[in-house]
Amino acid sequence: MLALDLFVNGLIIGLYYALMAVGLSMIFGILKVVNFAHGEFYMVGAYTYTLISLNLGVPPWLALPTAALAGAAIGWLTERWLMRPLYTGYGSWGLMKDEYAVVVTFGLSLLMINLFDKVIGPYPMRGPALWDVSRLRIGPFMMSGQKVVTAVLAIVLLVGLALFIKRSLWGRQIQAVAQNRLGASIAGIDTGRASSIVFMASGVLAAVAGALLAPVINPAPDVGIFPAVKSYVIVVIGGMGSIPGSILAALLLGVLESFAAVYLSYDYRDTYGLVLLILILMFRPQGLFGERSREV
Amino acid sequence: MNTPQHPNLHSSKLRNELWLSLLVLGVLAVLPAFVQSNYWLGVLIVSMYFAIIASGWNLLAGYAGQFSLAPAAFAMLGGYSTALFAYHLQAPLWIGLPMAAIIPGLVGLVLGRIVLRLSGAYLALTTLSFAEILRLVIYNSIEFTRGDQGLTVPSLLDDRVAYYYLFLVALALVVGLIYWLLRRPMGRFLQAIRDDEIGAASRGVDVLRYKTLAFLISCAICGFAGGLYGTFARLVSPELGLIAQTGLVIAMVVIGGMGTLVGPLIGALLVYTASEVLRDVGNIQMIVFAFLVIVFARYFREGLWGLLRRSMLRRALAHRKEA
To answer: What ipTM was estimated for this complex?
Structure first.
């Protein structure tokens, strides 16, 4: 029974991870850069949710969409202010494209951590739960209401995102931009808008993940660092830019950590991902589900 | 578009930077005659510690275009390499200090060998994960590393002024080593890899070998700085490897001028002494520096040194026109 419990718990943790990692993976797939401030999108979501529901007395289920909006806003701002030169081009590239993106998003991450630390304070807060049921029986499993809500919401969001990208017009434009930015712009697609949408979607997913975890993680300025590190690991394991790969890798990592925390050591639960990452890089550098990319 | 530079012009630019670096080092050499307070001597020593790390990181990121996000983690590893030898084996520092360069260098070799085959963002992602997880392991291995209490390290010298000159000599050696490397074919290869990796490979440059070599040297320099710092502070702790410390190093290089010999020196000295001043204003150092990093990367990509050089060039041109 313990093994099955661990498995289900691992899957739920994996769904949290997937919410984080998919946004990062999307940005990589479309702009070919890594957003090192991704953990701070998560932090913004956790804080928005907690502060709004605690200070303004807004019920948590209304605070959640507000957190999503905050995530979208921060994603939009990042794209408009910092990412635009990546594809509108510079007068001169003193730094190369990848290097620019690393420096500028890493700087943004530090800026946000320290700004929140100064404005709100370094002390962790405690967010309210969306569904305050601590013991819920579903079949043979006992779990907290918050976990059930998280799992359901994560699945809804991920399926919704997949449908959006596959079916909607904007989604198809995003796919086109991912395949060939120049070609897409020749075909009349507004590539800047497509990038904005991707960044906003990524911000929403991360912010919702942060809000959902607010009752567990106790929002603090540096709370996004480890989830972001996990997402980086997941994105590489899953194959950079592959959304299904990221989801599967996230579930895999959740289950692996859940078992290793019990059977190996709880203190080192955050290190198993790195071990897996190094193994993957050694034997299958394109990731579990990635294809070797072709450059045109 | 990057304008192709004439090779002679390039080497004269590097030589100018060497003269400027020597000027900075010379100013540092006479400073103790004016700075009497132990506190400010300490600030200058720590800023030289950062200047060593920044120079090491700049060799890899600025000249070779490979973005490691773990310079502070390798400095922490170097500090712990010295400290563990001293604490558990009572090894003298002439064994422990070289270990501060050797062990991070070897770890860098292994990690680089695995990651550097892949291009682009992989190195940044893996080194950031490595940095956080290394810190976590040190933090949690309490029996071995005493966790967040840190490890005590024996001191190398008693006198603070002597320590000041020790750091100055170490910094001069590192700057000299980097200048020497850049003058050699390896320096040209690294810059070719940075500017066009595929192009460099097609001209017969062994890309993986030179990237790995640069990573190894950079990690060893950072580790050595950490070891030296440990003996100065007489304590190493996981805080040496915080992401914010890496952020500080990147801020120094980006603000000073990336991919230049003198940029990291100017950046480290300015940023660290400014951070001491800003600490009194109200602990807003990291907010200011992170903001400056973004603004410099977004609008002034050549850093302070680049801005200075450009304004000097403009003045020289104006003079020539008048004559």
So the answer is: 0.85
